[in-house]
Design a protein that fits this description.
single chain, 700 residues, alpha/beta, OB fold (Dihydrolipoamide Acetyltransferase, E2P), Rossmann fold, binds adenosine-5'-diphosphate, binds magnesium ion
Length: 700
């Protein structure tokens, strides 16, 4: 059979209707699909052992001669054995094959084979069960590095490898997909070499070269695709042009003067909004840098121009807080602020929806409920997503489609994130956004002092709580309970604890109230509380009526009580560093010296080191890089929330240097040929299309 890239797998040796269906399930129907089905791992079968030297328990190759004709025995229905003794100059090995009757004929006494399997020792007897074997000198699956493929039930790795081997001759017919100058400039192997060696590597070095080329390719297409996404948005000519206004008008509403960084970002936003093109901007700023004011400014501009703005917060607690503060702030300007969350009563919801549809609310604050189906806006011009790296590309797309129904152009989108992420990663996750950075904290803030404390200091810590409260300050105590409902947002701690810990937050509060602080006013807050209770607790804390708030991480994102000066985090080792940094950001927001106490009983030296890192720096970027190193990109890439296409080879946290290279190459190419219309670049366009098949609007 002369295989071409389009040869259907049904024509391959070893593939019948049934197996074809299984292959289809893996997305494999033609020869070239197989070639793009990369191994997930490799097994080094190069070293050939003697029988005596073979280390027991691991899969290895042994070269030996069949010392006898295989003996076949039927033990019972459905169980048949073939047994044979093989020898070399160091000893004998006893082979047993289960239900592989053909072995009786396949192995011949006196002939030499390579056997691949794990040696077991039974007393002095060495045995091997179900080895793979081949004639010495005619090997295809031994004596080399073998690929291990991602499988599905009913398809063995052996079969997959044999199919790929059948497909391999057609690599020469595959068009090279990376333009020659890029390959040359970045030292990348040709596609043919790369594909041959990613499947059947000659040696480690060849594998490395192959992997580099194919990983680069993946990251390169990703970068090109994201650039397209962004250019497409920019090319959409129409968006509401929001006229600029004198900034002082807004500044008089604020109780403080903005920092230079805030002013700069406000200018960037105003320029975007007035450009007549849709804004797609990410504002990154460490906790406490004052992102809310910046978002408020954007919403205010829209409202003053007669449009609507929707601000989405990740939790109800936060939405309510924004609602309260924005109402107060914007009332003098005549801006009507409304709240829409999942926990309103049906009739309240109905009312707010009607107001949104009729344009009686200018500035809507809410949770995801705001973009859920059935919510219509009168003249929506701006969507602000607060505090979330959890809004991925897909969600942003959904947002952008929001107002098209009402005959309005797509809204401007502003994403606010307090999770400082390494720059390269930001370029990927937010590759389709412009980025503004608020790199300055409001003046007069003294850095939060952070202490790592062990259980034996608990009493002293309670005294410290008392002292803070006696000075009029307020205190948070955080417990790592898990509450994770979409409505209440991300409340779970990494390293998850059992739901039983939910009780911990309640019983702990009771304990504290009864035994430790009978004279203080304690409050309790967790995600699953009734919304009204939650709101009441938070409001009481804001008003200063609650002195100590015991809470789960529901307060993690964005809650702002400047009078709080101490946060105590129980079981601190169970949280990720970035999350701890966010939690710590709940204090130090006012003029008082603030403290963060991390309590831990951990015995892990590594966990202690992580906590000490946090104690030693307040630089959010450094912390997130440490976090990334220690925990991998789970936080950033968990559940594919970023909405990016699936990568086959690239590890978006580990392949940073290569990622940067690929991004440069993509930018360079797109500068020369923005629409990839040159014939040389058409294959790139094709590959990017395939990769972003789930985000179809990218090419419209
Ligand atoms: P974050 O960036 O974490 O969302 P916020 O917007 O909640 O920060 O602001 C944190 C606190 O700092 C709030 O109490 C806010 O009123 C205050 N704040 C913001 N900007 C300034 C500023 N320029 N000067 C003084 N206080 C400010
Ligand atoms: Mg905030």
């Amino acid at each position: 059979m002369a295989v071409t890239p389009d040869t259907p797998l049904l024509e391959f040796t070893g593939v019948g209707e049934q197996r074809f269906k299984k292959l289809e399930k893996l997305g494999l129907t033609k020869a070239d699909d197989l070639l793009a089905h990369y191994p997930r791992d490799y097994e080094d079968r190069r070293k050939i052992y003697t029988i005596r030297e073979a280390p027991p328990g691991q899969r290895i190759c042994i070269s030996a001669m069949a010392a006898e004709h295989p003996r076949r025995a039927r033990i019972r229905k459905g169980l048949e054995l073939v047994q044979v003794k093989v020898v070399d100059h160091t000893g004998a090995l006893h082979l047993t094959f289960f239900n592989q009757g053909y072995v009786e004929q396949a192995l011949r006494a006196g002939e030499e084979y390579i056997f691949f399997g794990a040696v077991e020792e039974q007393g002095r007897r060495r045995t091997m069960i179900n080895p793979i074997f081949e004639h010495l000198g005619k090997q295809s699956v031994t004596g080399r590095i073998m690929p291990i493929y991602p499988l599905t039930a009913g398809l063995s790795n052996h079969l997959m490898a044999s199919l790929v081997r059948q497909a391999l001759p057609c690599v020469a017919a595959l068009p090279e997909t990376l333009p020659q100058p890029i390959r040359q400039g970045h030292n990348l192997a040709a596609l043919e070499y790369a594909l041959r060696n990613i499947h059947f590597p000659q040696d480690e070095h060849a594998l490395e070269i192959a992997r580099r080329r194919l990983t680069f390719e993946e990251l390169f297409y990703l970068s090109v695709g994201l650039s397209f996404l962004r250019h497409r948005r920019e090319a959409i000519s129409l968006a509401c042009a929001i006229p600029q206004r004198p900034q002082e008008e807004f500044l008089t509403l604020l109780p403080f003067s903005p920092t230079a960084a805030q002013l700069r970002v406000m200018d960037e936003i105003a320029a975007d909004l007035s450009s007549g093109r849709p804004m797609n901007r990410l504002v990154q700023g460490d906790v406490g840098s004052g992102k809310t004011a910046v978002a408020t400014y954007a919403g205010w501009l829209c409202a003053m121009a007669g449009y609507q703005c929707a601000l989405m917060a990740p939790t109800e607690v936060l939405a309510e807080q924004h609602f309260r503060s924005l109402s107060a702030l914007l009332a003098p300007a005549g801006v009507r602020v409304g709240l829409l969350t999942g926990s309103l009563t049906p009739s309240e919801k109905k009312k707010v929806r009607a107001q949104l549809a009729q344009g009686e609310i200018d500035f809507a604050v809410g949770t995801h409920a705001l973009i859920s189906q059935g919510v219509e806006f009168h003249r929506l011009a701006l969507i602000v997503a607060d505090e979330q790296h959890r809004f991925g590309v897909a969600q942003r797309s959904a947002l952008a489609g929001k107002s098209e129904t009402g005959g309005m152009p797509p809204p401007h989108v502003l994403v606010m994130s307090a999770t400082p992420i390494p720059r390269t990663l930001a370029l990927i996750i937010y590759g389709d956004l412009d980025i503004s950075i608020i790199n300055e904290l409001p003046p007069g803030r003294t850095p939060v002092e952070t202490y790592v404390v062990r259980e034996d200091k608990r009493q002293r810590m309670y005294q410290f709580v008392r002292k803070q409260v006696s000075q009029g300050r307020q205190v948070y105590i955080i417990c790592p309970a898990v509450e994770d409902t979409p409505e209440n947002g991300p409340e779970s701690a990494w390293g998850a604890s059992s739901p039983a810990d939910l009780k911990a937050v309640k019983t702990y509060t009771e304990h504290l109230q009864r035994e430790v602080f009978p004279d203080l006013t304690l409050g309790l807050l967790y995600g699953k509380m009734k919304p009204k209770e939650k709101e009441a607790a938070m409001a009481a804390f804001v008003r200063g009526e609650i002195q100590v708030l015991v809470s789960t991480t529901v307060v993690e994102v964005g809650v702002d009580v400047p009078n709080a000066s101490l946060i105590i985090i129980e079981n601190a080792d169970r949280f990720g560093l970035s999350q701890l940094h966010q939690l710590r950001g709940r204090v130090g927001r006012g003029k008082h010296q603030s403290y963060c106490v991390l309590i831990t009983a951990t015995r892990s030296a590594e966990a202690m080191t992580r906590l000490r890192t946090l104690a030693s720096t307040t630089d959010g970027f450094r912390i997130s890089e440490e976090d990334l190193k220690a925990r991998g990109p789970g936080d950033f890439f968990g559940n594919r929330q970023h909405g990016l296409p699936q990568m086959k080879l690239a590890d978006l946290s580990g392949d940073m240097a290569l990622l940067q290279e690929a991004q440069q190459a993509a930018n360079q190419l797109l500068t020369q040929d923005p629409a990839l219309t040159s014939p040389d670049n058409r294959p790139v366009l094709q590959r990017v299309r395939n990769m972003f098949a789930d985000t179809p609007d990218i090419f419209n």
